């Protein structure tokens, strides 16, 4: 009678005493596999715990970034934007000496020529009267014309016309020098100022 092959094998192991070795090795293999899968599960659980911790950190950082910022301006230690960059210091001049008048615009003028500066006038023409007396014509920025004669007062510095030549008018006025004294200064009005330079 023919015995099936797997029985023959079983009988072989039984006879040889190897059956116990095979069973023990099979059980140890199963136990080893179970231990490996448990270790993999614990590793994956630890890994997922680490990942979830990182995700929680990222969420906290994102929350901080998206939260509204409360900003309050503190002017301490910062320059005032409405003040000029350069500080101006008012220096008081020494009072003028007695008998010396300051160079100020008058509050009342006898003629319009006495209230303006000589530099505001433009010399337009120089003519002579029938007796040979020279006259000059000047105009201000608005185009109003004035007749100038020698000895006439002109300018707010109490200037007087000294002479009228062919191409110029000389005005002598009193100005304050560095010492605070009033001195005479000649200002020349040219008929053709571009040619005189």
Write the layout of secondary structure elements.
Blueprint: H1 5-16, H2 19-66, E1 122-128, E2 134-139, E3 145-148, E4 153-154, E5 159-164, E6 168-176, E7 182-190, H3 193-196
Antiparallel strand pairs: 1-2, 2-3, 4-5, 5-6, 6-7
Provide a descriptive summary of the structure in words.
By secondary structure, the protein is of the alpha+beta class. The protein has two domains: 5-66; 72-197, SH3 type barrels (Roll), CATH 2.30.30.830. The protein is built from three helices and seven strands; from the N terminus they run ααβββββββα. The chain has helices at residues 5-16, 19-66, 193-196, and strands at 122-128, 134-139, 145-148, 153-154, 159-164, 168-176, 182-190. The strands form two sheets. A four-stranded antiparallel beta sheet has the order 4-5-6-7, with no helix packed on it. The protein has a three-stranded antiparallel beta sheet with strand order 1-2-3, with no helix packed on it. It is rod-shaped, with a radius of gyration of 57 Å. 8% of the residues are buried.
Brief write-up:
With 197 residues, the protein is an alpha+beta fold.
- Percent of residues in helices: 25-40%
N→C terminal distance: 147 Å
Q: Order of helices and strands, N to C? A: HHEEEEEEEH
> Which oligomerization state do the chains in this entry correspond to?
single chain
The CATH first-level class of the largest domain comes to Mainly Beta
> Number of helix segments?
3
The neighbouring-strand order within the major sheet is 4-5-6-7
Structural class: alpha+beta
CATH topology of the largest domain: SH3 type barrels
| Name of the CATH architecture of the largest domain | Roll
> If you average the pLDDT, what whole number results?
75
Shape: rod-shaped
How many structural domains are formed by the residues? 2
Main β-sheet, in a few words? 4 strands, antiparallel
Strand content: 15-25%
What radius of gyration results from the CA coordinates? 57 Å
User: What is the number of beta strands?
Assistant: 7
Low-confidence stretches: none
């Amino acid at each position: 009678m023919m015995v099936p092959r797997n029985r023959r094998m079983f009988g072989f192991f039984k006879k040889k005493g190897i059956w116990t070795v095979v069973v023990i090795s099979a059980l140890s293999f199963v136990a080893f596999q179970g231990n490996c899968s448990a270790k993999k599960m614990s590793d994956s659980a630890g890994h997922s715990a680490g990942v979830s911790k990182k995700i929680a950190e990222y969420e906290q950082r994102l929350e901080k970034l998206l939260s509204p910022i409360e900003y309050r301006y503190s002017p301490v230690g910062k320059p005032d934007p409405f003040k000029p960059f350069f500080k101006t210091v008012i220096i008081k001049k020494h009072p003028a000496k007695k008998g010396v008048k300051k160079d100020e615009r008058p509050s009342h003028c006898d003629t319009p020529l006495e209230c303006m500066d000589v530099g505001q006038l433009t010399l337009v023409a120089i003519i002579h009267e029938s007796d040979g007396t020279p006259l000059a014509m000047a105009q201000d920025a608005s185009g109003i014309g004035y007749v100038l004669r020698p000895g006439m007062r002109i300018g707010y510095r109490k200037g007087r016309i000294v002479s009228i030549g062919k191409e110029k008018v000389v005005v002598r006025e009193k100005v304050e020098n560095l010492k605070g004294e009033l001195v005479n200064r000649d200002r020349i009005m040219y008929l053709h100022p571009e040619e005189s330079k």
